Request: fold
Amino acid sequence: MVVQARHFRPGEGRTYQLGRITLTVKTSAAETGGAYTLCEAIEPPGAAASLHRHPTYDEIHIICEGHYECQLGAATLMLGPGEMLFAPRGTPHSIKSIGPETGRELVISSPGGIFDAFIEEVTGAMTAAAQGGPSADFKAIAGKYGIEFLQ
Reply:
Protein backbone atom coordinates (compact mmCIF):
# COMPACT_ATOMS: atom_id res chain seq x y z
CA MET A 1 0.00 0.00 0.00
CA VAL A 2 1.26 3.46 -0.90
CA VAL A 3 0.44 6.11 1.69
CA GLN A 4 -0.32 9.50 0.14
CA ALA A 5 1.07 12.74 1.57
CA ARG A 6 -1.73 15.12 2.56
CA HIS A 7 -2.23 18.64 3.83
CA PHE A 8 -5.05 19.33 6.29
CA ARG A 9 -6.82 22.59 6.94
CA PRO A 10 -8.95 23.28 10.03
CA GLY A 11 -12.26 21.46 9.81
CA GLU A 12 -11.13 19.05 7.10
CA GLY A 13 -11.77 15.35 7.62
CA ARG A 14 -14.72 13.13 8.54
CA THR A 15 -16.56 14.78 11.44
CA TYR A 16 -18.68 13.03 14.07
CA GLN A 17 -20.66 14.40 17.02
CA LEU A 18 -20.33 12.26 20.15
CA GLY A 19 -22.45 13.95 22.79
CA ARG A 20 -20.84 17.36 23.33
CA ILE A 21 -17.54 16.30 21.72
CA THR A 22 -16.86 16.96 18.04
CA LEU A 23 -14.38 14.47 16.55
CA THR A 24 -12.78 14.94 13.16
CA VAL A 25 -10.82 12.00 11.76
CA LYS A 26 -7.81 13.57 10.05
CA THR A 27 -6.15 10.31 9.02
CA SER A 28 -7.59 6.82 9.22
CA ALA A 29 -6.01 3.39 9.28
CA ALA A 30 -6.80 3.07 5.57
CA GLU A 31 -4.65 6.13 4.90
CA THR A 32 -1.73 5.12 7.16
CA GLY A 33 -1.38 1.47 6.25
CA GLY A 34 -3.00 0.55 9.58
CA ALA A 35 -0.31 2.32 11.62
CA TYR A 36 -2.51 4.87 13.38
CA THR A 37 -5.64 6.99 13.40
CA LEU A 38 -5.40 10.73 14.07
CA CYS A 39 -8.46 12.63 15.34
CA GLU A 40 -9.00 16.22 16.37
CA ALA A 41 -11.36 16.58 19.34
CA ILE A 42 -13.17 19.83 20.19
CA GLU A 43 -14.53 19.72 23.74
CA PRO A 44 -16.48 22.42 25.56
CA PRO A 45 -15.92 22.75 29.32
CA GLY A 46 -17.28 19.70 31.12
CA ALA A 47 -17.09 17.39 28.10
CA ALA A 48 -15.26 14.18 28.98
CA ALA A 49 -14.29 10.64 28.13
CA SER A 50 -14.91 8.85 31.43
CA LEU A 51 -12.51 6.34 32.91
CA HIS A 52 -11.93 3.53 30.42
CA ARG A 53 -9.30 1.20 29.00
CA HIS A 54 -8.64 -0.57 25.73
CA PRO A 55 -6.26 -3.54 25.53
CA THR A 56 -5.88 -3.46 21.75
CA TYR A 57 -4.44 0.00 21.07
CA ASP A 58 -2.28 2.75 22.56
CA GLU A 59 -3.48 6.34 22.72
CA ILE A 60 -1.72 9.71 22.80
CA HIS A 61 -3.55 12.95 23.66
CA ILE A 62 -1.82 16.17 22.61
CA ILE A 63 -3.40 19.27 24.13
CA CYS A 64 -3.56 22.14 21.63
CA GLU A 65 -5.96 24.51 23.42
CA GLY A 66 -7.76 24.55 26.74
CA HIS A 67 -7.19 22.83 30.05
CA TYR A 68 -7.87 19.23 30.99
CA GLU A 69 -8.04 17.05 34.07
CA CYS A 70 -6.92 13.52 33.32
CA GLN A 71 -6.59 10.26 35.15
CA LEU A 72 -3.80 7.96 34.03
CA GLY A 73 -3.72 4.79 36.09
CA ALA A 74 -3.79 5.99 39.73
CA ALA A 75 -2.41 9.49 38.91
CA THR A 76 -4.47 12.65 38.40
CA LEU A 77 -2.91 15.09 35.94
CA MET A 78 -3.71 18.66 34.94
CA LEU A 79 -2.76 19.34 31.32
CA GLY A 80 -2.61 22.52 29.24
CA PRO A 81 -1.51 23.53 25.76
CA GLY A 82 1.63 21.78 24.57
CA GLU A 83 1.34 18.93 27.07
CA MET A 84 0.51 15.36 26.21
CA LEU A 85 -0.68 12.13 27.77
CA PHE A 86 0.37 8.64 26.65
CA ALA A 87 -2.03 5.85 27.65
CA PRO A 88 -0.48 2.48 26.77
CA ARG A 89 -2.98 -0.22 25.85
CA GLY A 90 -4.79 -1.57 28.90
CA THR A 91 -4.09 1.49 31.09
CA PRO A 92 -7.21 3.03 32.69
CA HIS A 93 -7.49 6.69 31.70
CA SER A 94 -9.95 9.57 31.41
CA ILE A 95 -9.82 13.10 30.07
CA LYS A 96 -12.10 16.04 30.85
CA SER A 97 -12.09 19.58 29.46
CA ILE A 98 -12.21 21.84 32.50
CA GLY A 99 -12.24 25.22 30.72
CA PRO A 100 -13.03 27.96 31.06
CA GLU A 101 -12.38 27.88 27.30
CA THR A 102 -13.25 25.14 24.82
CA GLY A 103 -10.51 22.52 24.59
CA ARG A 104 -8.93 21.13 21.46
CA GLU A 105 -6.71 18.08 21.36
CA LEU A 106 -5.21 15.70 18.85
CA VAL A 107 -5.74 12.02 19.64
CA ILE A 108 -3.52 9.40 18.04
CA SER A 109 -4.50 5.75 18.41
CA SER A 110 -2.19 2.96 17.29
CA PRO A 111 -2.69 0.62 15.61
CA GLY A 112 -5.29 2.48 13.62
CA GLY A 113 -8.77 1.41 12.68
CA ILE A 114 -10.22 0.42 16.04
CA PHE A 115 -11.04 3.84 17.50
CA ASP A 116 -12.38 5.26 14.23
CA ALA A 117 -14.57 2.19 13.63
CA PHE A 118 -15.98 2.53 17.16
CA ILE A 119 -16.73 6.24 16.65
CA GLU A 120 -18.42 5.60 13.31
CA GLU A 121 -20.62 2.84 14.72
CA VAL A 122 -21.59 4.56 17.97
CA THR A 123 -22.43 7.90 16.32
CA GLY A 124 -24.43 6.05 13.65
CA ALA A 125 -26.39 4.25 16.37
CA MET A 126 -26.98 7.54 18.22
CA THR A 127 -28.26 9.20 15.03
CA ALA A 128 -30.59 6.26 14.31
CA ALA A 129 -31.93 6.42 17.89
CA ALA A 130 -32.57 10.16 17.56
CA GLN A 131 -34.62 9.42 14.42
CA GLY A 132 -36.87 6.96 16.26
CA GLY A 133 -34.79 3.78 15.98
CA PRO A 134 -33.72 1.60 18.89
CA SER A 135 -31.72 3.26 21.64
CA ALA A 136 -27.95 3.17 21.20
CA ASP A 137 -26.18 0.90 23.69
CA PHE A 138 -22.91 2.84 24.02
CA LYS A 139 -21.18 0.34 26.33
CA ALA A 140 -22.16 -2.68 24.21
CA ILE A 141 -20.82 -1.03 21.07
CA ALA A 142 -17.61 -0.07 22.92
CA GLY A 143 -17.25 -3.68 24.06
CA LYS A 144 -17.23 -4.88 20.44
CA TYR A 145 -14.02 -2.89 20.00
CA GLY A 146 -12.44 -4.00 23.29
CA ILE A 147 -13.16 -0.68 25.01
CA GLU A 148 -14.25 -1.08 28.63
CA PHE A 149 -15.76 1.86 30.52
CA LEU A 150 -14.91 1.63 34.21
CA GLN A 151 -17.29 4.34 35.51
